Amino acid sequence: MSQGWAGVCDAPFEGRRVLVRADLNVPLANGEVADDTRICAALPTIRLLLEGGAAVVLVTHLDRPKGWDPELSMAPVASRLAGLLGAPVELAPAVVGDEVRARAEATPPGSVLLLENSRFEAGETANDPEFAAALAELADLYVNDAFGAAHRAHATTEGVARLLPGYAGLLLERELEELTHVRDNPERPLVVVLGGAKVSGKIGVLARFLELADRILIGGAMCFSFFRAQGIATGDSLVEEAGVDLARDVLARAESSECELLLPVDLILGRSFAAATERRHLDGVEVPDGWMGLDVGPRTTATYAEAIAEAGTVLWNGPMGAFELEPFAAGTRGVAEAVAAAQGKTIVGGGDSAAALAAFGLADQVDWLSTGGGASLELLEGKELPGVAALARP
Ligand code: ADP
Ligand code: MG
Fold first, then answer.
1. Cα separation, 158 vs 370, whole angstroms
2. Which among 333, 352, 376, 380 is the best mutation to test ligand 1's pocket, defined by most ligand atoms within 8 Å of the CB?
3. In sequence order, what DSSP letters do the residues of 82-118 get, joined into one string?
4. At 190, phi and psi to the nearest 5?
5. How far apart are CA 204 and CA 233, in angstroms?
6. End-to-end CA separation in angstroms for the chain
7. Of 198, 248, 279, 299, catalytic
8. What angle, rounded to 10 degrees, do the helices at 351-359 and 330-341 form?
9. Is 387 designated active site?
10. What average pLDDT does range 363-379 have in this prediction?
11. What angle separates helix 330-341 from helix 298-309, to the nearest 10 degrees?
12. What local confidence, expressed as pLDDT, does residue 2 receive?
């Protein structure tokens, strides 16, 4: 792969202070880390640096505070990270400033100083040069390992990368490698499974893969934008109005494309978005009034599973239905099981698809589970990620 950036393994980090941008944007519940997947994904780079004699100054955003918010302090992440690393993790009193700089300078090799939530500073999302400069003062080198935030040009992902010698972390490198491989050089047939709630967020990927993939399988609420565009009744199903025109455009393009676009042929209906709602199987896709499609049906699931089994590469993004509700989880479970069992290479992106795989106990059965939802979609679409572009050396 041609790349304009260097990886962390090539960084001269022994005895140096390294600012590491990780994606530790984890869900919290009752003041504790509810899911540490992202922290675990960041460990290899942190360990590599610590074991190689660097002092690590770690920074991430957490949720979307507008200014200082004690509820979104990094304290719970600091303690979970310390537990996972088996080493102390100091929490800085702020993101930048004199006191933080003194703490960074006092951090010995082999130790971690975690900065406070980068979104406590307005300069983060504004990519403010002064804030970026204050970050750069905390270290000698910069490592970006935050794939999940690489599609944002923020101060911790982009601005600071232009001020310090920058390197890609192990996770960022692996994500780029896996996803660009699927995009540029997949083992065929390439089967793309797209679901979830909104067409608009995935339209770029859909358009791109109409050119690249052999088959695209559509599920989730997304299919109702397609059915509406085809003049098929959708009842009370969730239809993204803005997605209908996009879907019509995709259908038109699919006519002249080599790629086969598959839509559901049967559905599981409910009266409302609730586990306890009345439920029925519809052998067809004309949804009557008073009902909503909440999952793909068993015929659709079987067809999709077969296509997945025959694939050289499977790329899956977005659940097939409202999988959080057990009565409507079968389509997503069927696809997840097919992906887990597939002989071909399997790549899964998207927060809810990852959550579904984890809920079914299949997360370790796929070849690559991307940690970035938006970032993975933008990369697959062929967009340049600002956090990666900023690491490039002339
Ligand atoms: P991902 O995070 O994997 O990219 P999305 O965020 O696009 O996925 O979509 C996930 C959401 O879509 C889930 O919360 C799921 O309940 C919802 N969803 C999927 N199918 C339906 C449907 N038929 N009706 C309503 N909601 C649906
Ligand atoms: Mg989601």
1. 21
2. 352
3. HHHHTS-EEEPSSSSSHHHHHHHHTPPTT-EEEPPPG
4. -95, 120
5. 26
6. 17
7. 198
8. 80
9. no
10. 93
11. 10
12. 46
269-322 pLDDT, tens per residue?
999 999 999 999 999 999 999 999 999 999 999 999 999 999 999 999 999 999
48 φ, ψ to 5°? -55, -45
In whole angstroms, what is the distance from residue 234 CA to residue 223 CA? Answer: 10
d(CA 119, CA 382): 28
β 313-317/345-349 pair status: parallel
pLDDT, tens only, 19-70: 999 999 999 999 999 999 899 999 999 999 999 999 999 999 999 999 999 9
86 has catalytic annotation? no
Pull the structure tokens for residue 3: 């790349």
On whether the CB atoms of residues 42 and 59 are closer than 8 A, the answer is no
Residue 199: pLDDT band (50, 70, 90) is: confident
Q: How far is CA 184 from CA 5, 50, 177, 218, in A?
A: 19, 35, 10, 22
Is the minimum distance from the CB of 52 to ligand 1 under 6 angstroms? no
- Between CA 340 and CA 145 the distance in angstroms is 27
Pocket lining: 324 vs ligand 1, CB cutoff 6 Å: yes
Residue 203: per-residue pLDDT? 87
The CA distances from residue 306 to 146, 163, 320, in Å, are 35, 51, 15
Answer whether residue 394 shows pLDDT above 80: no
The one catalytic residue among 148, 351, 372, 373: 351
Mean pLDDT score of the chain, rounded to an integer? Answer: 96
Q: Which amino acid is at 234?
A: T
Asked if residues 171 and 42 have their Cβ atoms less than 8 Å apart, the reply is yes
Longest dimension (CA), the chain: 68
Is 331 near ligand 1, meaning CB less than 6 Å away?
Answer: no
Core vs surface per residue 278-294: b (16+ CB within 10 A) or e: ebeebeebebeeebbbb
Find out whether 171 and 45 touch, Cβ atoms under 8 Å: yes
CA atoms within 13 A on the CB side of 180: 13
Residues in the chain: 394
Which regions of 121-220 does DSSP assign to beta strands (E)?
141-144, 166-168, 190-194, 215-218
Judged against a pLDDT cut of 60, whether residue 185 lies above it is answered with yes
